[in-house]
Amino acid sequence: MTSTDRGHMKSYTTLQQYCAVLISSFFLAVSGASAQAVDQSTPDALIKTVVSDVMASVKSDPEIQKGNIPRIVDLVEKKIVPYTDMRRTTEMAMGPNWKKATPEQQAQLVSEFKNLLIRTYSGALSQLRDQTIQFKPLRAAPDDKEVVVKTVVIGRGDPVPLDYRLEKTANGWRVYDMNIMGVWLVEAYRNQFANQISQNGVEGLVKFLQDRNKQLAAAKPAN
């Protein structure tokens, strides 16, 4: 792992107690599921209603706070899945290497990257206590197809900037990247993915993600 990779990982470790629920919310799932009504009239309205709903659910559910993975996945499938584009997230993290992967490998990468994010951040959900979200005014033109919605996580420590990158699709606005204290989620994984592919090819990256997910799944959740 390069010094840049270590710096990125350190940033994510520091932020877990503040915004793991938000990372988990928007990047844990791939395909459709039903969800309750969410305001999709504007990208910032989408973020506000989804984030507020998810945080309320986490704070009211002791099992989620304990890191109960099935309960977390159920929450995500019901409230978050329709508003994410995990395929684009994975494609961006892969960069030019995405085109080197077969359709089967691409599907595997999307699935394994999803699982990696679940396992990486779900354990930190128990740290969510008194955090609140401040939503910044949206700076975008009415006809923009790509926007950034800016928020700030307010907790016991310093405020944490947390921004969402969304695209307007035929099915509405979708989240595909997040910026945490100046580091975009996609960028945080790009170098690591590229290093794995340069050493072992696309199939090597698939295996790396699979092995890492097995390790995380076997680890006991922190109390």
UniProtKB/TrEMBL annotation:
Keywords: Signal. InterPro entries: MlaC/ttg2D (IPR008869). Residues 1-35 form the signal peptide. The keyword Signal applies. This is ABC-type transport system involved in resistance to organic solvents, auxiliary component.
